[in-house]
Amino acid sequence: MIEFKDVSLIYPNRVEALKNIDLTIEKGEFVVIVGMSGAGKSTLMKCINRMVVPTGGEVIVDNQIVSQLKESKLRQLRTQIGIIFQDYNLVKRMSVLRNVMVGRLGHTSTFNSLISRFPQEDLQLAMKNLKRIGIDEKAYVRSDQLSGGQQQRVSIARVLTQQPKIILADEPVASLDPPTSHQVMRDLKRVSKEDGLTTIVNLHFIDLAMEYADRIIGMREGEIVFDGPIAEVTEKT
Ligand code: ADP
Ligand code: ADP
After folding, report:
1. Sorting pLDDT into bands at 50, 70 and 90, what band is 154?
2. What is the CA(197)–ligand 1 centre distance, in A?
3. How far is residue 2's CA from residue 62's CA, in Å, rounded to a whole number?
4. Which ligand is nearest to the CA of 11?
5. How far is the CA of 30 from the centre of ligand 1 (A)?
6. For 60-69, 176-185, 214-223, 226-235, which range has the lowest pLDDT when averaged over its residues?
7. Which residues cross the membrane (predicted)?
8. Please, what is the Cα angle at 173 between 140 and 66, to 5 degrees?
9. In terms of DSSP H, where are the helices of the chain?
10. Which atom of ligand 1 is nearest to the CA of 46?
11. How many distinct helices (H) and strands (E) make up the chain?
């Protein structure tokens, strides 16, 4: 589903954020990338939807060379990739339900339908996904009335409503306390598996990775220093 072939990325300030990365992620894997701040996790993720372009090598997503995609194909690819952010990125003054409807932008809904009316089937999909995350009773509450954990779960419902093939979650629990972090990771893993999605999560703590990842990739200073199933991490530490 995702392949990095000898990918390097040097930012204009000469920081080498990625150094000769080779990596294959199969469809349906739930992968956690672990590493300290500045290790290159976020940059690696940004290569997948071309938020940044490598200075060397190739990134291949769903059999397409990402750097060679024309605008319309790139837009299609981005519709297939759902993103979860550290700070949730909800529209504060909008209801939870309308925030989840944002997942339909790029599909059937237009921005217009988002602020006034939207197709009935999109509405039903959004409600279904709020239910799956156990937060449907908050559908008509303003999103900024929710706790951090609830807001992150709304953002998971939004990403599901986008119906992507891939989910990229960049430090999704970095602003949450430990019990809430576990709940968010548990929900994210469960729905990823239910929908057969390929999911990559960046974390800076190994303990959460150990509990939820199918596979852990360790990064340090732009390089992959570990890649394997959990059993091997335990052997090495
Ligand atoms: P992580 O997600 O592991 O914290 P990043 O990918 O954000 O790591 O950063 C990797 C390195 O690249 C760091 O040294 C960071 O300061 C640098 N970096 C990240 N984004 C940029 C940018 N837009 N311009 C210049 N340097 C950047
Ligand atoms: P992230 O949370 O994406 O790992 P930060 O919070 O460190 O990154 O930085 C916020 C934004 O600034 C990101 O878009 C990142 O790419 C960019 N950035 C990070 N480090 C640098 C840098 N050294 N120079 C320029 N931009 C940077």
Report:
1. very high
2. 27
3. 6
4. 1
5. 23
6. 226-235
7. none
8. 95
9. 41-48, 71-79, 96-101, 111-115, 120-132, 148-161, 178-194, 206-212, 230-236
10. 6
11. 9, 10
Burial 115-152 (b: 16+ CB within 10 A, else e): eeebeeebbebbbebbebbebbebbeebbeebeebbbb
pLDDT tens digits, one per residue of 188-204? 999 999 999 999 999 98
**Chain segment 40-52, per-residue pLDDT in tens:** 999 999 999 999 9
The residue to which tokens 């570990």 are assigned: 226
Backbone φ and ψ of 178, nearest 5°: -55, -50
The protein residue with its alpha carbon nearest to ligand 1, atom 26, reads 11
Sign, CA torsion 206/179/197/87: negative
Q: Which ligand is nearest to the CA of 219?
A: 1
Single pTM value for the model: 0.88
The ipTM estimated for the assembled molecules is 0.76
- Is 42 a pocket residue for ligand 2 (Cβ < 6 Å)? yes
Atom number, ligand 2, closest to the C-alpha of residue 43:
16
